Amino acid sequence: MARPASPQPDWLPEELRATKGMLDQRWIELSKAFAMTLAMPMDGRALRVEVDYQSSQAWAGLIGTECERVTRNRGGTTLVAPLCEISGGLTSWLGWQEVWEVTVGPKPYRFRNAGLTVYLGKRYEAAKPQILRLEWPGISTWSGGELSFQSPGAGHPHWQFDLLEALAQTANQANFIPDTEEVVEDFDAAPPERSTTELLSKFSIERMHLASAAPWWLPPKSGGSAHHMNAPPDLSSLTRWLEQSVLYLRQELQRCVITA
Fold first, then answer.
1. Considering the entire predicted model, what is its pTM?
2. Which of 50, 92, 128, 243 could form a disulfide with 70 if both were Cys (CB 3.0 to 4.6 A apart)?
3. How far is CA 219 from the centre of its chain?
């Protein structure tokens, strides 16, 4: 067996940096790209990129008349756009966010992360469980104040699956019954052994970073960096990744059906 790669390699790719003008142009191009990929009008009313420039970062997401608001698994809400129809009256919904940190220098904006999140639900209904994410963090100061990959040893870009967590949250809400009378506990009784189904409902699969770009059959990289640890080299590469990822997500979601 090959020796595993170091969680943090000796050599890191360069940070992806940009000026505000470069980012302003990026948002215009991405608005057109998202509208075209999701087969929406190009006038910007149905779908476009919205950006919030703050003192410490720039945050971009989707907005438009075709968007609906959903609740994320880890709290907060976001706007999502329809991705494709699925049998049974369900629609898959796409959320996107991109974050750039404000630093110093001729290109003061440093890429932090971009991510696509998929939800499932019916139009005009609030319940749209979070299914999965495709994320690409950049080289940044993730911990300890030094430049590094996020989550040492994890794949970048990577998939994370959220369905079990979403279903567990839904089940907890459905099963909640307020106490109406005092319950007497038997502290000497042994706790019942939990079934496999119950254990799986609590299994934190959403913590796994499943590499989406990992040519492990190639010889090792120099500097100790593993093939599954990648950073976007330029804006064009990041845009191509987003466009192709959306197309691939739609292709695979269209294979899904509601079984009897």
1. 0.87
2. 128
3. 29
